[in-house]
User: Fold these one by one.
Assistant:
Number 1:
Amino acid sequence: MNVKQQLENMIAEAKEQVLIVKSIHELNEFKSKYLGKKGSFSEIAKMMKDLPNDEKPVFGKLTNEAKQAINEYINNQRVIIEEAIINEKLMKETIDVTLPGKEFGIGQTHLLTQIKEEIEDLFIGMGYQVMEGPEVEIDEYNFEKLNLPKDHPARDMQDTFYITDETLLRTHTSPVQVRTMLDNSEKGPIKIICPGKVYRRDDDDATHSHQFMQIEGLVVDEKTSMADLKGTLLEVAKKMFGSNRDIRLRPSYFPFTEPSVEVDVSCANCNGKGCNICKHTGWIEILGAGMVNDKVLEASGYDSKKYQGFAFGMGVERIAMLKYGINDIRMFYLNDLRFNKQFTNE
Ligand code: FA5
């Protein structure tokens, strides 16, 4: 068989065989079988040296044409294989749009956050700024600068989680008052509320939690009075418990305010007539408040002859409990969806 015929046979064989190849890996092997270093063409090339010189160019031309032809078959088959791979992948990835989707539960704001935001909105509307402070606080800001020195008996009113002698988990949001007054370099007017978590070593029961939420309010200005305090708190009571509500102030004691008051709201359940909820008094206690003690103003660099202030602090859980008739404070912290879902804010 002459070389030309040999090459023609090889081309015909390759043309037929390449169609059987079904993967890229096999195709690469196929390629090296013909065109690789030890492939069929290397055998044919060896024949070149025995040919007479005048036949060599013709031989070379034929060989190159054969290589080109085989290469083309391989490339065509490569395209066919790659297309088949993509088609198979697409088939597998087909989405059945008629299948039912996965159900994702829709979350909602926790009741305590809702109440907090409602109160924040009310105060922002009255020109207050919302301030925050750290939950790990220093003794100086939580107690001392609020007129509660280390040996003060009123410290017992707030049983404390101490971290070191000087650091503690804040027992109320009042240290944010101190921080704001200290930070106010001009010692000018202040109008803030401070919402946040607080901690006390109280035994957990239906009305006490070792962690709860407070919202503190502080106004410092040249002319502030108990009348301003009362007007402000009446707005809070109406917003939280309905526009028919009234409030009353009773004398009380806090070291950081003088005079100090407890604030009661008229019972929404019986409209002040007396029922089980208000223990037949017609009133329910909602917060503590008072005029900022001169010593507290002075401890944070304010001139108490020029400035007065009022402050108040409320427990958010207790307000939520009254508003929605919840009889156990622990419900707020159990993450029981049957409870949480009852209070949608939509
Ligand atoms: C204070 O914490 C004062 N800092 C409030 C204040 C601020 C008074 C500014 C005057 C001026 P008291 O200890 O009463 O006060 O707590 C305030 C509110 O926190 C209470 O009325 C109550 O609603 C809530 N509270 C207190 N202890 C607990 C507790 N263990 N669990 C849930 N709520 C509590």
Number 2:
Amino acid sequence: MSPPHFLVIPYPILGHMNPLLQFSQVLAKHGCKITFLITEFNQNRMKNAIENLGTQINFVALPDGLDPEDDRSDQPKVILSLRNTLPSKLHNLIQNINASDGDDSKITCLVISKNMGWALEFGHNLGIKGALMWPASATSLASFESIPTLIHDRIIDPETGLPTRKQEIQLLPNSPMMDTANLPWCSLGKNFFLHMVEDTQSLKFGEWWLCNTTCELEPGALNRWPRFLPIGPLIQSDTTKSSFWREDTTCVDWLDQHPPQSVVYVSFGSLAIVEPNQFKELALGLELLNKPFLWVVRPSTDSNNENNAYPDGFVGSKGKIVEWAPQKKILNHPAIACFVTHCGWNSIIEGLCGGIPFLCWPFFSDQFINRSYICDVWRVGVGLDKDENGVISKGEIRKKVEQVVGNEDMKARSLKLKELTLDNSAEGGQSSKNLQKFINWAKD
Ligand code: UDX
């Protein structure tokens, strides 16, 4: 029987493209054929990185329907434009692939990410199988799936998704208690909530909801719905070929010069923006540490660079600042002592695989639930608390770094969880079996 041919369709932001790329690379290693869809805008922006990704994957580009100068950080606009533009173009793309490659290479399955639920319904109408690869935790997907129940129980408002009153709930058995104000859509506005209600309904057209997680990490969510299939941790033997953005590798040489467990790594993923005041306080906090630090400061999106203005008194001589790091490599480097993170799911999985304790600094969406897992369930990190002015102070940063770095019990739990997590992807591990089950299903 010929191997399955997957058409992979990520929502075009890095937090979705990277996990789907890693997943594609794992599938390709199992002999599957992969066509990976990107937008023409991203193709131009990421040209060099794509050329570097190797030849296992066939990249194809389609327009996103926006003008070159349109603001692509306006998510509702991008989501709508994709939904209006892509279906007819996808139809032609699939027809062309199927006609040119012959029967053996016909597209057999679509794999989509969040915000692209319509594509599963589209594939279903063409008789093509489909699966969702969710780019965050299974718990956050379960929370979207629970929206009708939360509305029925009058916990959230059906029009806005906001809590009807202040309360703590346990969304699923074996999951942490959460403040309803921290449900993942609450920080993203009414339009996003309404979009997610619609998107989640289309997800029913996907046979599997794959998540980069493991049975031990989120048993409550994974046991709840039979469609959930944990296939994590997604790890690549060649980490240099798993990112769409160019990485500054000089920080690996810099880390090589530091003793084990001595460096504080600070990174807030691809989207979070640190407000100017908070940025200054963070810089001063790092300056106060009696440890070196490696800090990822993405180029500012504002033209006068106000967001990334370093404060007076910041010298930074103990640290290294880069615009984008080879994070998976960093988190596996012996010199790293702890990880100051925004609690994006991919960063968490990568930190767990490195056995690194966390300092949690969530910004929005699922990041608050993720913090609860780290601090309250797995107990491999601590949260950074805001002061009365809503700022995480330099003193708080120093105090919590010392608390985490000196905590041998926490370090031991991190190493134990690393082992449990990695076992899943090893031969005979649960995620490994799930992956094989998925590939066999796609072949049939
Ligand atoms: C988004 C959402 O913001 C997050 O809440 C959700 O859980 C996943 O999707 P993002 O904010 O980018 O993602 O965070 P994260 O999930 O942590 O992904 C960041 C990715 O960028 C990671 O794979 C990380 O390795 C990579 N990265 C980050 C680098 O390669 N280099 C860096 O310097 C920083």
Number 3:
Amino acid sequence: MRIAVLSDIHANLAALEAVASDLPQVDQVWVLGDIVGYGPQPNEVIATLQAMGARSVLGNHDGAAIGTVDAAYFNPDARAAIEWTAARVDDNARAYIAALPEVRRDGELTAVHGSPRDPIWEYITGPSIAAANLDAFDTRLCLFGHTHLPMVYRALDGDVDATMGLPGERVELNGARALVNPGSVGQPRDGLPDAAYAILEADEADGTDGHAVEFRRVRYDIDTTQRLMHDLGLPPRLADRLRYGR
Ligand code: ZN
């Protein structure tokens, strides 16, 4: 059993399409929120995820786009982009977002956007926050996003081991409980502009009891996304940062 794990697509259709064509044969696709916001094609991204049969959770930008999450904490560029998005989400996209759960569970897998104890807002940025959150879900694994950084936090002998998800790297989970972040499809922030996602390998017999995660990167046509953002009047800094992966 193989599961594609995507997060923080942020309405970047060119990046999502590149990931979709790079995907090996998988049994499921999980999406960890922030489907929209920042980028130029929210409706197209949601239609693509529907066609892929993605299992998605709600991110802070998704909720803000339909008015169910308060955008007061957004920085000015993020707020400008979310106001732009809110004015453009079509009925299908609005209904899709409105139906998203904050937490999704299946077998030994939990999925959230931010963290299991605060699915919308908390950033898991280091081992101590990860340690507190390892107590906040009861499945073997928890998939999360929000930081836009590929990472694995494994519970090992009462400690937390933090491993960056380097491109092409395969991280063994060895039955440990773990928090796994695939990085961001549509706005990477680890200094590499290529779209990030992960493949979770699980044993057939155990269903979703993952035993290894492979971190993948895909080049996509950044020019196309930047040009669209420029033409549609989205904040220039949001387009510029795609080039640098910051
Ligand atoms: Zn995000």
Number 4:
Amino acid sequence: MSDQDFAQTIIAIGSNIEKERYLPEAIRLLRRHRSIEVRDVSRFFESSPVGGPADAPDFFNAAVLACTDLSPQGLRSELRHIEDVLGRVRTDDPNAPRTIDLDVAYYGDVVAEFEDWQLPDPEAATKPHIAIPIADVAPSFVDPVSGKTTYDLMLGVSAPPEAVKPVTSIRLATPYEARGPEDFDQTGDVYAPQLEALVRAQLLEIGEDPEREGLVRTPLRVAKAMDFLTNGYATSLDEVVNNAVFDAEGADEMVLVKDVEFYSMCEHHMLPFFGKAAVAYIPQGKIIGLSKVARVVDLFARRLQVQERLTNQVADAIVEILDPQGVGVVIEGQHLCMMMRGVQKQDSSTVTSAMRGTFKRDPRTRSEFIDLVRG
Ligand code: ZN
């Protein structure tokens, strides 16, 4: 994302039901959203509920600095969707405990009034539990109403000492290291609480001790690895291509990109399969940057896959982007689920192909492609 096309936004987050779980989970869902690019996350702050019953549970609050190509209303409705995913039940009681609360506090320098909300969120300048996390993540962001920085606004909100204090027991794992005190308890890292809990349970099931030294941080590492290895779900073809399609009048020679390394996971065993892809097309007025072809392969490889579908999806994506005269894709992969379990010989590989347009209709085009791939 280039900054010119995207608005900078600050999202305020709060939770007081299972907050150790829901706050990090909300940040993870924001991070995976295709139209929201999380730039930084504040520390977590703990505060007593404002205006609620005396025995209401304390809140965790945080703020996220992000870029988005969504409109303010579009962003708000995506935040509502994430709240729904995380089990938020909306009631008429504004002080009711909630799993998660996501609000657009700022959206660039937009000052606007919508049907039931406004920008900036007026509470960003008046409520300590909102102003403090915002100032923590984006101290120099200028409030378009007052012309003051969020840091100055934070100094102006009156909060009794200790009313809003940083949470030191939870530290947000990379890539969004919480800032502030460096003496956080390393084992308190969280990234994807639900996923981590499942990995921990899995370790127990196979007879391991998740508390032994070598495994203490394994659920966190697995969660991060899974996020990376499946980030194809959170990426769109548009995003990958990002306008790198060029006019090429008269170009009608085969374009071939081969030896494109890929790493995927089979959907039957969730074990890796990997290898090389060859992608060829005959243009019809449009071409694409060569590096983008590799990114299209990654887009579909970084999901749970079967090799045949991966091959077809890459071919169909090239058709969608370029509308060429034809496309050919050949993928050669080695599947750990077969190799490790001794079902097949170690050195065997699986070859799949997908042909579209002239590659399908014209045997000469197809054999030219196959010869180039082999050569
Ligand atoms: Zn498998």
